[in-house]
Specification:
Elements lengths: L5 H15 L15 H4 L3 H8 L10 E7 L4 H17 L3 E7 L6 H8 L6 E4 L1 H10 L6 H6 L2 H4 L24 E8 H6 L8 H13 L3 E4 L6 H14 L5 H4 L8 H16 L11 H9 L3 E7 L3 H8 L3 E4 L6 H7 L2 E2 L1 E2 L4 E4 L6 H22 L19 H9 L4 E2 L9 H16 L3 H11 L3
Parallel strand pairs: 1-2, 1-3, 5-6, 8-11
Antiparallel strand pairs: 3-10, 4-6, 4-7, 4-9
Helix pairs in contact: 4-17, 10-13, 11-13, 11-19, 13-20, 19-20
Length: 450
C-alpha cells in the first residue's frame, strides 16, 4: 500500500485541493470530486504520453509481473490496466504473480535465486537494496522515451526521482497519508468521546475492551502499519516523526521517541489491539472493523472507499490524539504520511528490458487513471485526462477541507535506510505484541548505529 519534507507533501496536497475545488465530478483512491479539466492536462498531451510506441513488436511476448492484488483498491485498477494494455499491445501477455503481504521478503528471495519477475512493484527500500545487488533497471531513458516524465504531476516528482537523481520505478500513487478511522455508532453506543488526548484514548480503549469491542483493528502482520502507528505517536512529540530516525538525525532513546514508545506500549497493555493482531492480514483486520467488532481501524487514505462501502455514514476519521490538550492543537495538522520513489520497476536481467519498461510505464499510468476516475482519489502521481466518474465520499470531502493547512512528517513508506527499516519494522511489531518500550528503543538505536 509509498511514499522528503512536509513541505513537499503540503505542496502536493495544495495542488490537489485547488483541483478539488474546481468542479463536481468524481474521483477515487480515497475519494473527492474535482472537475477533470482542472486537474488534468490536455487530452493530446496525456494520450501521447500514455500510449505505447507504435514500433512495439508484434511478436507474442509473455512478461511476468509481481503486483498487489488483494482487495478492490488493488484488484480493480490492476484489471483495468491489463484490459487497457490488451487494447494497445495485444501482443503482450502478463502473467500475474500476486505480491505477498510480507514487506518484500518473497521479492528479495526471488532476486537472490535469480527468479525475479520482468516487472515488479518496488518501494524505496527495495530500490535501494536492489540497486546494490544489480537487480533493478535504471529507467531514466525510458521515462523520457515513453513520455512518463512529462506525464507526472509536478507536485509528485518526489515519487519518481530518487536521491541519486535517477529513476528506478514508475509510480502511480501520489503523496499519501495514514488515517485513524472510527465507527461513530460504536462510540455513541458506549458513550465514548472521540479522543483528543492520550488519556482520552486510553479511556476509550478501556471502555471498548470492557464491553467486548476491539479498540483498534490492525493488519499488523505486514509491519508497515506497525511503524505507521508508532509514527503517529512520535509525530505528536516531534513533527518530523520517524524521518529523523531514518536519517540518523535522532535516536530512539531521545525523549520524544522514547516517550512515544512508552505511550504506545501503555495502550497495548490496556488492550488496544485484538488478540493475534500481529498475525492478521488486511482482510482479517478490515473484516473486524466492517462487522462492528472493532471500534477503530488504521490504514491509509485509500481505505476511505472500502470503509465507506462497508459502513456508510457510520464511519469517519479522526485527528490523531495528542499527548495532552495543548499537544493536540499544536500537532493536529501533522499527519503521518508523505511519499517517496516507488511503483512498477523492471528486472535488468529480463529478456525484454525495453518492452518491460514500456509496459511498466503504461500499467502505472492506467493504474492511476482508474484510481482517479473510478476509485475516488486525486492522490495519484500522473496526470489524467479522462472525466471523473465517481463522487468523493464524505470522508474525502472532510479531508479536503484540512488539506490546505496540512503538515506532514513525510514518512516515506519504503524508508531510505534498509537496515533501519528492517529494525523498526521488527521492533514496532514486537511492541504491538507486548514487548517493552525499552527493548524497542534498544533495537532501533542499535540499527541506526547509536
Amino acid at each position: 500500500m509509498i511514499r522528503k519534507t512536509g513541505a513537499i507533501l503540503l505542496i502536493a496536497l495544495l495542488a490537489f485541493t485547488a483541483a478539488a475545488c474546481g468542479g463536481s465530478g468524481s474521483t477515487n483512491g480515497s475519494n473527492a470530486s474535482p472537475s477533470a479539466g482542472s486537474a488534468s492536462p490536455s487530452g493530446s498531451e496525456s494520450s501521447a504520453a500514455a500510449s505505447p510506441s507504435a514500433s512495439a513488436s508484434a511478436e507474442k511476448v509473455k512478461l511476468r509481473i509481481y503486483a498487489q492484488y488483494a482487495d478492490e483498491d488493488t484488484k480493480l485498477p490492476y484489471d483495468y490496466a491489463v484490459a487497457e494494455l490488451k487494447k494497445e499491445m495485444p501482443n503482450v501477455e502478463l502473467e500475474l504473480d500476486i505480491q505477498a503481504q510480507d514487506d518484500g521478503q518473497k521479492l528479495k528471495t526471488y532476486a537472490a535465486t535469480g527468479n525475479l519477475p520482468d516487472i515488479y512493484q518496488a518501494g524505496l527500500d527495495i530500490i535501494n537494496t536492489f540497486k546494490q545487488s544489480g537487480n533493478i533497471q535504471q529507467l531514466d531513458e525510458y521515462a523520457d522515451k515513453f513520455g512518463f516524465k512529462d506525464a507526472m504531476q509536478p507536485s509528485a516528482m518526489n515519487t519518481l526521482v530518487t536521491d541519486d537523481g535517477h529513476i528506478y520505478a514508475f509510480p502511480y500513487a501520489g503523496n499519501e497519508m495514514i488515517l485513524l478511522y472510527y465507527n461513530k455508532e460504536l462510540f455513541e453506543k458506549f458513550g465514548v468521546k472521540v479522543p483528543t488526548t492520550f488519556d482520552e484514548w486510553k479511556t476509550a480503549v478501556e471502555t471498548f475492551k470492557k464491553n467486548g469491542i476491539i479498540p483498534l483493528s490492525m493488519f499488523a502482520k505486514e509491519k508497515w502499519p506497525d511503524v505507521a502507528l508508532y509514527d503517529v505517536f512520535a509525530s505528536r512529540l516531534d513533527p518530523a516523526g520517524i524521518t529523523k530516525l531514518d536519517k540518523g538525525q535522532a535516536k530512539a532513546s531521545d525523549p520524544a521517541y522514547k516517550t512515544a514508545a512508552e505511550k504506545l506500549a501503555e495502550l497495548v497493555k490496556a488492550g488496544l489491539l485484538a488478540k493475534g493482531a500481529t498475525n492478521m492480514n488486511y482482510d482479517q483486520a478490515a473484516a473486524l472493523f466492517y462487522e462492528g467488532k472493532a471500534a477503530m481501524f488504521l490504514n491509509g487514505q485509500w481505505e476511505i472507499e472500502a470503509s465507506t462501502k462497508a459502513l456508510g455514514d457510520k464511519v469517519a476519521w479522526m485527528f490523531y490524539p495528542g499527548m495532552d490538550a495543548a499537544g493536540y492543537e499544536s500537532s493536529k495538522l501533522v499527519f503521518s504520511g508523505g511519499g517517496g520513489p516507488g511503483g512498477y520497476a523492471v528486472n535488468p536481467k529480463s529478456e525484454h528490458v525495453e518492452l518491460a519498461a514500456q509496459v511498466a510505464a503504461f500499467m502505472s499510468r492506467k493504474y492511476a487513471e482508474f484510481k482517479y476516475t473510478e476509485r475516488g482519489t486525486p492522490i495519484v502521481a500522473t496526470k489524467v485526462d479522462k472525466p471523473i466518474v465517481k463522487q468523493y465520499p464524505p470522508m474525502m470531502q472532510e479531508l479536503a477541507k484540512v488539506i490546505p493547512d496540512m503538515k506532514s512528517t513525510a514518512f516515506a513508506w519504503g524508508l531510505s535506510n534498509p537496515k533501519f527499516k528492517a529494525a523498526i519494522e521488527d521492533a514496532s511489531q514486537s511492541l504491538l505484541a507486548g514487548t517493552s518500550a525499552e527493548q524497542f528503543v534498544k533495537e532501533v538505536d542499535k540499527a541506526i548505529g547509536q
